[in-house]
């Protein structure tokens, strides 16, 4: 039976997209989670258009020993709860740059892991991120890229400054997709 959803997967970065990024630091506890305005409304709307919503996030605070993986999973669950529990899965890279892993963005490992698990069609998927390292692997894989920042991106298909803007774009764009 064909799906009623217009798009496959919405990939999202975490810090700077779902919650406010801490300059020169990390979200290490629930008290540091500040949800970005409009994200819950956007995710609720996105659930109507996408088969799944997944987060792909670099979290080197784990690799640096600042946070245990179990605590990071609890923080991710809290962020999901505070944003409406619309996120299907969090993919996390806990490694440091020098670990030279395959999952740390801008490498595509987390996207490929999600594709393997969910049989994702990248050409029918979107990525929302706030850094070039979010845009690069998505662009290489054929995923539509949306840069959530007041500054422009060399890799983004579209620059956006608010979730209201992205929600309006999604609703307009999806009306033109079969």
- Main sheet? 6 strands, parallel
Q: Roughly what fraction of the amino acids lie in strands?
A: 15-25%
Mean pLDDT: 95
Tell me which CATH architecture applies here: 3-Layer(aba) Sandwich
Q: What coarse outline follows from CA principal-axis ratios?
A: globular
Radius of gyration: 15 Å
**What distance separates the N and C termini?**
16 Å
**Which strand order spans the largest sheet, edge to edge or round the barrel?**
3-2-1-4-5-6
Highest CATH level, the class: Alpha Beta
CATH homologous superfamily annotation: HAD superfamily/HAD-like
The helix content, as a percent range, equals: 25-40%
- Domain count: the total is 1
Tell me the structural class: alpha/beta
The CATH topology name reads: Rossmann fold
Number of helices: 6
Q: Give the uncertain stretches in residue-range form.
A: none
Q: What is the tally of beta strands?
A: 6
Give a written overview of the molecule.
With 178 residues, the chain is of the alpha/beta class. The protein has a single domain (16-174), classed as Rossmann fold (3-Layer(aba) Sandwich), CATH 3.40.50. 32% of the residues lie in helices and 18% in strands. It contains 6 helices and 6 strands. The chain has helices spanning 39-46, 60-63, 69-82, 109-118, 132-140, 163-174; strands at residues 7-12, 50-58, 89-93, 126-129, 144-148, 158-160. The protein has a 6-stranded parallel β-sheet with strand order 3-2-1-4-5-6, with helices on both faces. The longest helix has 14 residues, at 69-82. The radius of gyration is 15 Å and the shape is globular. The protein starts with 6 loop residues before the first strand and ends with a helix. 37% of the residues are buried.
């Amino acid at each position: 039976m064909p799906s009623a959803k217009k798009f496959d997967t919405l990939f999202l970065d975490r810090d700077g997209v779902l919650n406010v990024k801490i300059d020169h630091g990390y979200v290490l506890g629930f008290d540091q989670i500040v949800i970005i305005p409009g994200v819950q409304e956007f995710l609720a709307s996105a659930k109507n258009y996408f088969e799944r919503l997944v987060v792909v996030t670099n979290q080197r605070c784990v690799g640096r020993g600042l946070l245990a993986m179990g605590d990071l999973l609890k923080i991710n669950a809290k962020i999901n709860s505070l944003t409406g529990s619309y996120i299907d899965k969090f993919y996390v890279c806990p490694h440091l740059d020098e670990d030279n892993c395959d999952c740390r963005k801008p490498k595509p490992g987390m996207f490929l892991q999600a594709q393997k698990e969910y049989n994702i069609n990248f050409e029918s998927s979107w990525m929302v991120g706030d850094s070039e390292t979010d845009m690069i692997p998505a662009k290489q894989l054929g995923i539509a890229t949306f840069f959530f920042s007041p500054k422009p991106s060399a890799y983004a298909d579209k620059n956006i400054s608010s979730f209201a803007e992205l929600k309006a774009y999604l609703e307009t764009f999806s009306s033109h997709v079969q």
